[in-house]
Amino acid sequence: MTTTSAAIASSAAQSATKSAYAVIRHDWSRAEIHTLFALPFPELMFRAQSLHRTCFDPTEVQISTLLSIKTGGCPEDCAYCPQSAHYETGVKAEKLMSLEAVLVEARAARDAGASRFCMGAAWREPKERDLDRVCAMVEGVRALGLETCATLGMLTAEQAQRLKASGLDYYNHNLDTSPEFYGAIISTRTYQERLDTLGHVRDAGIRVCCGGIVGMGEAREDRVGMIAALANLPGHPESVPINMLVKVEGTPLAKGASLDPLEFVRTIAVARITMPRSVVRLSAGREDMSEETQALCFLAGANSIFYGPKLLTTPNPDSDCDMRLFDKLGLVPMR
Ligand code: SF4
Q: How far is the C-alpha of 92 from the C-alpha of 87, rounded, in Å?
């Protein structure tokens, strides 16, 4: 071994020792997160994978299925979203699905191997009578033996408690991006309103699913800011979806430049290092990702995917493709 390679090996061994402890911190500075993003790729991957192994079986991937229970016509103006009523995307506004129709989909998801069933509604916030119907859906899906998750927009404290009483396991509400870039993406709801909803969900005893989207034209500093906001929440979200923007014709972000897939992998790795016990979900955007990029994401510490042909209104790899990729990589669904 040369002197240089011995030095690298020694430094890597020190890093491994340091990273072998999954210390939960809520005081990440942006400078620290920036340094992680800027690490040489092999070092970043090594640190992320070392930590991943201390908290999880690296061969297991949690599988969720996402169903749009109320599609389109949303009054919010999220610039990435084909369901916003502000943009002409061809997505039609539909009514809330019936309980029976939701349970048919949930049974099919369970039989296809999903352990969690997520229900998404394109609302600013749920109305009281709609919330009653969603609570009945949560009870019905749980009775099928599935974990439940809902994403319904902003919640009051009382609404979060009602969902908890119906048995809801997870609530998804993303921060989307950094506080600084947020205003370029959404004008109809503030960052603070998102944080307030997350607080109500946490206070009600529901587990939090919260992440963001990259590839929206943000700078690396914004990806740093997004991870800092997530990792410095009072509790790390139990589930952290990291989405790659899916460009949809008609939305303001349809024509932007694409993010380098390796920068996406770096974002996953930094999420893994800063939130070591959270399940990090390789979420939207997999349809356009190569198998190699997805494999790197799993190496970087992603251990959850959405499974099924659609993510709300955008395409997702079909289940057979996913199972073939799992077979190639020796991955198995987490139980
Ligand atoms: S992301 Fe959600 S809140 Fe925003 S426009 Fe789409 S459905 Fe509405």
A: 11
